[in-house]
Each structure stands twice: as C-alpha cells, then as structure tokens.
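Q: Joint fold for the lines below.
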Amino acid sequence: MSDLRELYQQVILDHYKRPRNFQKMECANRHAEGHNPLCGDEITVYLQMDGDVIKEISFQGAGCAISQSAASLMTTVLKGKTKAEAEELFKKFHDMVTGEGQGADPMELGKLAVFCGVSEFPVRVKCASLPWHTLHAALEGKDEAVSTE
Amino acid sequence: MKHVVCRTSEEPCQECLVGFGAEKIREDFPILWTKVHGKPLVYLDNAATTQKPQAVLDTLMRYYTEENSNVHRGVHFLSQVATQSYESGRTRVRQFLNASHDREIIFTRGTTEGINLVAQSYGRKHLRAGDEVIVSAMEHHSNIVPWQMICEEKRASLKVIPMNDAGELLMDEYERLLSDRTKIVAVAHVSNVLGTINPISDIIGLAHRRGIPVLVDGAQAIPHMPVDVRALDCDFYVFSGHKLFGPTGIGVLYGKAELLESMPPYQGGGDMISAVSFEKTVYNALPHKFEAGTPNIAGTIGLAAAIEYVEKIGMQQIAAYESELLDYGTELLAAIPGLRMLGTAKKKAGVYSFLLDGIHAHDIGTILDLEGVAIRAGHHCAMPVMKRFGVPAAARASLAFYNTRADLDALAKAIHKAIEVFA
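A: Joint structure:
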C-alpha cells in the first residue's frame, strides 16, 4: 500500500475530485490544447497574459487522476508568475517526475512536490507532464494541439 | 504431462471439465510463477498477448541449437531439416484450421500483416471508384486502417455495420449494407474490447449469397475456440501466433486457394519467385508467392509447437472451461458497486472491459499492477468502439485457459482496493 499512497497522495486525489480553476476563460488571450492519445487524457489551458506575466490561468479537461490533478495544482501556483518563471518551474517539475537532472529541491517546488512519486511509475510520467507541455504551448502561442506521442 | 481430453464427443462432457486441471496447466507456463511488486503475478492481459508454455520455449531453443538454417535454398543437411520443420509447421496449421491444402496457409508477421496483404493484393485488384468495403463497428484498428488506405487510393468507401448497446452487430443493418458495390466484407470473429462472438457463419452466408468474399479477423477467437475454416466457409481467416501461446512476429493468413491464385503478390523478393531476369519475373506458386524473403522460421516452428500444445488440451475443452470461468468473473464483477461492463453480448469470449465510477482506466491499471494484477487500460486499439460507448478509455481483463477462479478473485479484490484509494 505504501507505493500506492506515494503515488495517489491525498492532495492529488483531492485536486482530482475537486479541480481548482476548472473553467473556460472567456477573457483568455492565450490557450492551448494537449492530448495524450495513449490513454485519452485531454487538457485545455487558458491564460490571460499581462505582458510577460500570467494574470489569470484556468483549465478544462478529462482524464486520469494524475493528469487532472497535475493540471489543477499547476493552475494554483502560476498566477502572477512571469513566463520565464513558469518555464523554470516546468523544468524543475519535469526533472522531478522523470527522475532526471540534479533532482529538484522539493522546497522550490512547494506543493507540486506531491508528484515526486510519479518518477517510480515511468508510464505515468506523460500524465503528470501533459498539463505543463500544454502550458508551454499556450505561453509560446502555438495553435497546434500538443500530443505526448 | 498429460491432460484429460474427451475424444468421444464434440460437446464437452462433465468429466472433461473436472479433468481440465488449470492448476496443473499453470505449471507449464514458467512466467506465471513471476512475482510483481512482491505479489504473485495474476496475468489477465491475454487479449494483448498470451504467455508461452515450456514446450514452445523448448522448441525455439532446440531449433536454434540444432536446426538453424535457411529454408527452401540449401542442399545441405541443416537447410533440409529446417525446411522440413518449417513446412511441417504449415501442415500443422492447415490441420488446426481444417483447411483443404497446405498452400492455403500463408505465414505472415501477424494478423495486421495478413489483413494488409489482403487489402493491398485483393483490394487493389478488385476495388474501383464507388465500390464499398464493409467492416463492423467493433473492429480493431488493424481491420479498419488497411481498408481505409486502399479505399482512399481507389476512391472506394468504407461502410460500417452498427452494433447495439450490448455490443452485438445489427444483422438487419448489415444485410441492408450489402449491395452490388460491396467488394469484400472484413469482420472480427471475436471483439477484442467487448468479447462479443460475432455470428460469423451468418455474416459469411449473407455475403456469399451476393458472391462477396469475407475476411475474418480471428486474432481474438483462435485462442478460445475451435475454428474450422471449411465449416465457416470464410474466404480469408487471419490470426497471430503470439495470441495463441506462440512467439511474436508470426501469424497466419488462410485463403481459399482459388482466391489466392488469382491475387497478385503483396511483396517482392526472394522465395516468392521461380525465375527472375531484368526483363521478366515469374512468380512462385502458392504459398510461396506471398512469402517474400526469409520467413520467420523459428516463429513458425514455435507456433506449430503451441498448436500441438493446445490441441493436447483440446480446443473444445478450452472453450468450455473459459466459458464457465467467464460466467464466474461476470458475476463477481457485477457485484462491485460503481462498476459498468462494456460488452454484454449473449455470446461472449473471455474479455471484461469495464469502467469504475470516478476512477480513470489508467489509474485502475496502475493500482491493479501494484497488486500484481496485469490488465490493459486505454482505448485497446479500437477508438471507434470507445467513441460508440462514449468513453475515452476502459480497463480490460482478458482470460486464457491457464487462468483460474483465484485469478478473478484477485482481480475483484484489487478493484476493491482501487475503489478504497479513491473513496
């Protein structure tokens, strides 16, 4: 059970069941769609950018607990961050879930550290990183849908 | 080891079921002794691929140790031994399917290649603009995409037999789809997602009344029930060795000789020719015309060993045992609150595709894996089926004759754990 609870932490389950910032944003000036064809996870990330700063962020989607909670938690930490700060966080998050890089300091990742268990489940890395890839596409203003495949 | 096999009757008798002995059979499959995350492996992903009995593993080892050589080429000793083993594999498959002639058995890489071969060879020759190919709503992508490709090239179109909510084909609709424009019908014998056993004889009969040939995708039927291609009167039957307890990379296309004779080669190369010059090439006779290049010799011999193995148990006995096991599991799963079964056809093979309220299939798959239970989660290479039922993904547990009631108990227990985690 310990492995199980490491992956499916209460915070993750809570965000899956009650996703935060889960709505279409009418005033968005950027948005992007992400898709994981392997399991059918879908996410749309909406941004309202004020110059280089994320003023508002929301998402909509459907999929597994990991992808949806990762999207929900992502939206709770990015408000007010600059594009560069968001990309830096993405890199740290990516390093954590893939177990690559120097191993990010959990303190720097704050509540996103609940996803550290994902690195033990290689097939679920794509689930956790899909919202961030989608965010990246939205920040870059790409129109094409992001795919994890 | 010896299994009790009923030789007196076509129908399985009670004695056969009692004597089936899945527990004993499990000893023939070394991989089933594996531990996963510290728990005994409960392998319920048989629709994806099956495990291999020791007899198949030994055969592959023996081939590479004692016989390895190329076939149909050498005058030397080993080449003759390998050729004989390879060709006797063909005879074994012919007998297993009850086909008339060895030359009607073409070795392929698998079901997918078999369908592509027929689509590219038969399809390219016979399809014209405005013609139609009929498939069903429950096809695997491998029995959709090859037809779409040739239809696009020939400006023909694909027609789809719809199904009801239980996952049964609507035969009236099928009959309406058949017309003078229909050039071939391609349907699954058993659905890989829903487990439905399609009324394949009726499907063939209706097509034949109009002189339309039928290809049967037997990938999910061949491990579970006796298949007699002459009794079915199908024109093509395709399956994969790895789903029949044999190696990967080997498959079979059965085709009626007169149809195969009339079809152009699929691939060019060695073995499929009888004479080559820069001006003209004369193609080899069946079955070699469709087997360009060095074939999967080890795979063929391994497949023949797998067939020998299942025949010792008896396909009738396997079908009867699995049917009883399926019913046991269906009841067990139906008692789980919030579980919805996809595919509730009256005639079903050992497949349970299911959804759990509030838990995505991928999460089910991960949690079950941690309990040692191997299932498939996703769209099962049948996205149109998922769309038909309005779900992005489903979890799927699928049976083989080495599964037991204990495996299904472990499945149910693991599902309860998933529900507990998400509660």
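Q: Anything notable?
A: Residues 1-9 of chain B have pLDDT under 50 and may be disordered. Residues 77-97 of chain B form the longest helix (21 residues).
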